Amino acid sequence: MTSAIRCEGLTKRYRGVTALDGLDVDVGPGQVFGFLGPNGAGKTTTLRILLGLVTPTAGRAWVNGRPAGDPDGLARIGAMIEEPAFYPWLTGRRNLEVLALSGPPLPGPPGQIGRMLAVAGLGAAADRKVNGYSQGMRQRLGLAAALMREPSLLLLDEPANGSWGCGTGSRRWCSGTSMAWSNRAPAEEQPGRRKCSPSLARC
């Protein structure tokens, strides 16, 4: 069975500073995987490597059975890295309509954007301008954008920012989809610990 994510000895250094140190991970299809750690533990760096945005110093990574950054693997990924950016003068719905123009036709029957906005909890705010959204609402819009092509893998960087979490509501949309997400660990839970601590759970 092809892994959704596989990393072997993944390492990244920036000017002598080690941001990621020998990460080994294997996430199977349909699994939900969490990267837990304090700031600087390498969570965002890992997700950026998986998306081909950053080149590792050492080690290897595969996504959907393809080397990280390979277009065939990226085509089946939905991602939200850090706080998403949108056109503030456009509505949430219009932002997703513009984004949809940059790729192949959306899957499913007409109305896919409206369905994903509803799944993300923005149905009532879909036609409001984004400059009136709270941080949490912008996070939810980023989630709708990541979901609208029905990816086989979701990569979410600290989705709990802005009071949106990966709790029971996530069961509405993660069934059958692999997901890797990151979150900060409270300092009191990991005193002096800097290394990313992966955890695994099924949705």
Task: Give the spatial strand order of the biggest sheet.
Answer: 6-7-8-3-9
Q: Outline, from the CA principal axes?
A: globular
Overall CATH architecture of the largest domain: 3-Layer(aba) Sandwich
Radius of gyration using CA atoms only: 17 Å
Tell me how many strands there are: 9
Figure out the total of helices: 5
The CATH homologous superfamily name of the largest domain equals P-loop containing nucleotide triphosphate hydrolases
* CATH fold category name of the largest domain: Rossmann fold
Task: Quickly list its features.
203 residues, alpha/beta, Rossmann fold, 2 domains, four-stranded antiparallel sheet, globular
Short description:
This protein is an alpha/beta fold and 203 residues long.
Tell me the layout of helices and strands:
Elements: E1 5-14, E2 17-27, E3 31-37, H1 43-50, E4 58-63, E5 66-67, H2 71-74, E6 77-80, H3 92-100, H4 112-119, H5 135-147, E7 153-157, E8 178-184, E9 197-202
Parallel strand pairs: 3-8, 6-7, 7-8
Antiparallel strand pairs: 1-2, 1-4, 3-9, 4-5
Provide structural commentary.
By secondary structure, the chain is an alpha/beta fold. The chain has 2 domains: 1-76 and 154-162 and 171-203, P-loop containing nucleotide triphosphate hydrolases (Rossmann fold), CATH 3.40.50; 85-150, no CATH class. The chain has 5 helices and 9 strands, in the order E-E-E-H-E-E-H-E-H-H-H-E-E-E. Strands 6-7-8-3-9 form a 5-stranded mixed beta sheet, with helices on both faces. The protein has a 4-stranded antiparallel beta sheet with strand order 2-1-4-5. The protein is globular, with a radius of gyration of 17 Å. The two termini are 19 Å apart.
